[in-house]
Amino acid sequence: MVNEKKMVGERAAEFVSDGMVVGLGTGSTAYYFVMALAKRISEEGLKISGVPTSLETARLAEKNGIKMYSVDEVDGVDLTIDGADEFDPQLNGIKGGGGALLIEKIIASNSKEVIWIADHSKEVSQLGSFPLPVEVIREGSKHLLAYFTDKGYQPTLRVNDEGEPYLTDNEHYIIDLHLEGITDAQALSEELIHLVGVVEHGLFLDIADKVILAKDGNCQIIEK
Ligand SMILES: O=C[C@H](O)[C@H](O)[C@H](O)COP(=O)(O)O
């Protein structure tokens, strides 16, 4: 069986050129991109500076010999390559299934170009089947949960394997909203970001420039 995540991850590594500052995404698809990039560095002598979007990716990149900097140590990022949980025909998406949405969004917002890499299951006609992650300050999270319940957003506090509240790299909680279809993503984004205690949410609107999608055994490049 074709490994679609590997296929798009390896294709994405071809978009990187010598001297670039590259945002390194997080997750099981971005894993293959980081590995393919590391291969180009060791085999072709490609010189790049990596900006990891999570501690998990930083560990992987370090183990594989990629030079790394934080987003504040660089003037800007040339290209960020990251996974997505869902994307729609306008290339708006949901991210944060792996909890890395905050730093992912900061790095993407400071990138000249953003490419998402996706297996075929990530392409949707309307966002919202995937639970929407909202990163929140721990203090007051109980009240945000109650607010989301009242709004009918069916919130759940994300927990780790031990059943304890999941902590992001920045030590916040994540509340997942089970919306079953988002009709106005822009309005929802505005609502969420203005709630006191919300740090960031997983709606990535007007951020991706391209998606490399695995479909029918090939890589399809979808441009905005
Ligand atoms: O927080 C995690 C990130 O947003 C991931 O890029 C996203 O969840 C997609 O992950 P995966 O490639 O493992 O499906």
TrEMBL record:
Q: Supply the CDD domains for this chain.
A: RPI_A (cd01398)
Q: Name one GO biological process term.
A: pentose-phosphate shunt, non-oxidative branch
What EC numbers are recorded for this enzyme?
5.3.1.6
Q: Where is the active site?
A: 104
What is its pathway?
Carbohydrate degradation; pentose phosphate pathway; D-ribose 5-phosphate from D-ribulose 5-phosphate (non-oxidative stage): step 1/1
Tell me, what is one Gene Ontology molecular-function annotation carried by this entry?
ribose-5-phosphate isomerase activity
Main EC class of this protein? isomerase
Q: Which GO terms describe its cellular component?
A: cytosol
Q: What reaction is this protein's catalytic activity?
A: aldehydo-D-ribose 5-phosphate = D-ribulose 5-phosphate
For this protein, the parts annotated as crossing the membrane are 20-38
Tell me which UniProt keywords the record has, alphabetically: Isomerase, Membrane, Transmembrane, Transmembrane helix
Protein family according to the UniProt entry: Belongs to the ribose 5-phosphate isomerase family.
Q: What does this protein do?
A: Catalyzes the reversible conversion of ribose-5-phosphate to ribulose 5-phosphate.
Oligomeric state and interaction partners are given as: Homodimer.
Which protein is depicted?
Answer: Ribose-5-phosphate isomerase A
Q: Which gene does this sequence derive from?
A: rpiA
